Amino acid sequence: MKIRRLFIANRGEIALRIIRTAQRLGIETILGASDADLDSVPARLADHCVRIGAAPAAHSYLDLGAVIGAARAVAADALHPGYGFLSENATLARACQAAGIVFVGPDAATLQAVGDKLDARTHAAAAGVPVVPGAAVGTLVECQQQVSGLGYPILIKAVGGGGGRGLRRVDSAAQLAAALALAISEASAGFGDPRVYVERYVTGGRHVEVQLLGDGNNVIHLGTRDCSVQRRYQKLIEEAPAPGLSAALAQRMSDAAVALGRQLRYRGAGTVEFLLDTSRDEFYFLEVNARIQVEHPVTEMTTGVDLVAEQLAIAAGLPLRFAAAEPALRGHALECRINAEDLAYDMRPSPGRVSRAVFPAGHGIRVDTHIEAGASVPPFYDSLLAKIIVHAADRPAAIDRMAAALADCQISGVAVNTALHARILADAGFRRGAVDTGYLQQLLAASAPKPARSATG
Amino acid sequence: MLTHEDVEEILRLLDATPVEQFELETAHFKLTLRRSTTGAGRWTQERQSHGAADMLPASGSDPTASVDAAAPAAAPAAVDAEPAADDGRLEVRAPLVGSFYRAPKPGAAPFVEIGSEVGADSVVAIIETMKLMNSVYAGAAGRVVEICIGDGGFVEQHQVLMRLAPVGA
Fold first, then answer.
1. ipTM > 0.90 for the complex
2. Does residue A175 sit in helix, strand or coil?
3. 3-state DSSP call for residue B84?
4. Which residues, in sequence order, are CB contacts of A74 under 8 Å at separation 6+?
5. Residue in A51, A178, A380 closest to B69 by CB
6. CB-side exposure of A436: number of CA atoms within 13 Å?
7. Partners of residue A181 in chain B, C-beta under 8 Å
8. A16 pLDDT band (50/70/90 cuts)?
9. Does any CB of chain B come closer than 8 Å to the CB of residue A179?
10. Which residue of A23, A39, A372 is in closest CB contact with B53?
11. In the prediction, which pLDDT does A163 show?
């Protein structure tokens, strides 16, 4: 069926990103917005906007009844969930189907299979993809029993989680109880599911992922991305292709991702995340992200494919356009996430109102943002303000282009992390490439100020 | 809405001219392109959207909708302006804006109660901001004599959360 009236169940830069492609394709857009976002740039630029609830996400973007109710009230024929919030919620996919609305994403059964991180591990193993040792834990005692077999350090992960939330590294038995409690708390608050599991923490690992597109019959990959520059498991800089991989290793990882996609009869855009143990060129399955991802633009820049357009085409029932030949990869792309974070205070979030927003422009530069002068940065949602994306012939040229682009980026009114990006781009370790997920923490530890305490007295 | 390809196309044309600043205005937005001072051939962009969202009615029967929509997002609780008492009490203030929680997870015992003795490094509460749980430290040794905010309440940065009486003084 042809999609004519698309409901966007998200906010921020990704809402605007989806609106842009939908409008280009001649699809009418209706943004579902919370009270905090009724005057946001995406609300103004969508063809229409509808209120879905109060500012806290639990009362709006995470309120399934409110979202589906609004989509029905405005007579949408399709719903794009973006990333985060309800984007991988199988119940929403089913509710859409029941309401006769096309859900722009994988079918409910796939979301269920990959959304439960333990089920996803089982599918990966069935597809012949290696997984990190670990198991579900419900109590501190169970957790202690598991850890005795795995050894420290370990990672506690939310079963319903993803996107790096509800994830905690634990280095010793003394930290275990507190870390478990906080992980459960974040899992409940973030995903409405308190279940967690533990995994051995692979030290020196890189985060490498493979972009998939599937139509339920065919599954293809669009190359690798590296997202190893992370802090608190939040990605900061992503690039495509993953640097420093031999062609054979990149092929093995892409083949593994495609095998898992076929096992799932995957339909839509998705990403298979791997942990790459560089010391042995071995990789382990981490999770499937059954949605568009924050870092999708680096793949778009190296393939020339508009992933949101492909999502909409697949959702409309069209067969994959690339079944015969996968798109060729061209050059190198980088993305820097500009977050409302205060570097002077241990990168704590910095909500507020933006007074001025100047971004770079020019050849090989793309800026995905919902921020302009006057934009509000509410405390209720994540801190992503903008993604600066560059493309160039090779990695050194892309790094140089990004460094120059960041120098032209000026945001006032809220604190932003631009200086941290500049520091990473100038660092010899990053420029050499192939850094692991511990890299940024080590770079910060080299000269980090102590976090400020809260008391005055 | 312009894509980055559209902007690149405009800049290719402008690069061959002496133009320093270029503005493009439509019914929905204004784009301002300026030559950057950081290097030759480099540009900056600023965008400004116009007008208000074109609101459609939701299910139509929520009487609170219009009221909530008119209120500013995250209507701030009045910042506690009470002067610090001169009886030597210490104030624990919110390090950042967000939701105040007294316990590490729902249903768990609170970090502290009235009468609890704390050290400077004791965690006394958490504040959830932008999806992250941030520990609030007492910041000084003392005994909790007042907890100013209810569990789950929204607090502004620097708002007084608790008061401590010094111990051993």
1. no
2. helix
3. coil
4. A5, A7, A30, A48, A50, B56
5. A51
6. 13
7. 104-105, 108
8. very high
9. no
10. A39
11. 64
Q: Answer whether A161's CB lies under 8 Å from A141's CB.
A: no
Strand partners, A455: B92
Instruction: Assign B160 a pLDDT band (cuts: 50, 70, 90).
Output: very high
| Average per-residue pLDDT for chain B | 82
Nearest-CB residue to A45 (from B1, B43, B104): B1
Give residue for tokens 């006769």. Answer: A100
Contact A83, A15 (CB under 8 A): no
Q: Are B47 and A372 within 8 A, CB to CB? A: yes
Give backbone dihedrals phi and psi of A420, rounded to 5 degrees, phi first.
-65, -40
Closest Cα of chain B to A260: distance in Å? 31
Residue A208 has pLDDT above 50, yes or no: yes
- Burial class (CB within 10 angstroms; exposed 0-12, middle 13-18, buried 19+) of A228: buried
Q: What is the DSSP string of A405-449?
A: HHHT-EEESS---HHHHHHHHH-HHHHH----TTHHHHHHHTTPP
- Tokens in use for A381? 């949602």
Closest CA relative to residue A313, chosen from A170, A399, A215: A215
The CB-side HSE value for B79 (13 A sphere, CA atoms) comes to 10
Cα separation, A293 vs A382, in Å, equals 14
CA distance A339 to A385: 5
Percentage of chain A exceeding pLDDT 70: 96
Three-class SS state of A293? coil
Q: Please answer whether residues A39 and A58 qualify as being in contact, where contact means their C-beta atoms are separated by less than 8 angstroms.
A: no
> How far apart are the C-alpha atoms of A281 and A113, rounded to whole Å?
28
Say yes or no for a CB contact (<8 Å) between A380 and B57. no
B137/A454 touch (CB, cutoff 8 Å), yes or no: yes
d(CA A78, CA A61): 17
Which tokens belong to A316?
Answer: 């409309």
Whether A291 sits among the annotated catalytic residues: the reply is yes
Distance from CA of A165 to the nearest CA of B (A): 9
CB contact under 8 A, A35 and B71: yes
Helices (H), B16-150: 65-70
Chain A residue closest to B10 (CA)?
A362
The answer to whether the CB atoms of A456 and B93 lie below 8 A apart is: yes
Residue A73 touches partner B, C-beta closer than 8 Å: yes
Q: Do B44 and A19 touch (CB under 8 A)?
A: no
Average pLDDT over residues B24-39: 92
For residue A106, cis peptide bond before it (omega within 30 degrees of 0): no
